[in-house]
Specification:
The chain is mainly beta. The protein is about 15% helix and about 40% strand.
Length: about 120
C-alpha cells in the first residue's frame, strides 16, 4: 500500500499597503520645499515618544539615508522612513492642508487608535 503525502497549498500572501503615500497637495508642497533650498536633501519621517497620547510624528531634513532607513518613492518624490517608525506608519497618507489660520503636513494613519485633544500626538 502506498501513501502519498500532499503538502497543503500555501495561502497567497496578503498584499500590504504602501508604507507611506503622498496626496497631490503634499507632493506639490514637497517639490516647492526641495526647490527652495532643500535640494540635495531628503525628508525623513519618524515617530518619537512625545505628547499626551505617547507618539508624535517627526520630520527632519537629512543629507543621506541613515542605516536601515526605508526609502519610499511616490509621485516622483523620495522620502525616508525611520526603520523604528515603519510599523507605526504602514498605510499612512501624508497630506498638506492650508486652512484660514494655519497650514502644514497632516497624516492619515490607519494604525492610530486615538489622538490627544490638541492633535499633537497619537497612540496605536
Amino acid at each position: 500500500m502506498s501513501t502519498t503525502n500532499q503538502i497543503p497549498a500555501r495561502k497567497p500572501k496578503r498584499v500590504l499597503p504602501p508604507l507611506m503615500a503622498l496626496t497631490d497637495a503634499a507632493a506639490e508642497r514637497l517639490r516647492a520645499l526641495y526647490a527652495k533650498g532643500r535640494e540635495g536633501m531628503t525628508l525623513r519621517i519618524g515617530v518619537s515618544t512625545k505628547g499626551c497620547s505617547g507618539l508624535s510624528y517627526e520630520m527632519t531634513w537629512v543629507d543621506a539615508p541613515g542605516p536601515g532607513d526605508e526609502v519610499v518613492t511616490d509621485k516622483g518624490l523620495t522620502l525616508l522612513i525611520d526603520r523604528k517608525a515603519s510599523l507605526f506608519l504602514i498605510g499612512t497618507v501624508m497630506d498638506y492642508e492650508v486652512k484660514s489660520l494655519s497650514s502644514g503636513f497632516t497624516f492619515s494613519n490607519p494604525n492610530e487608535k486615538g489622538r490627544c485633544g490638541c492633535g499633537e500626538s497619537f497612540h496605536v
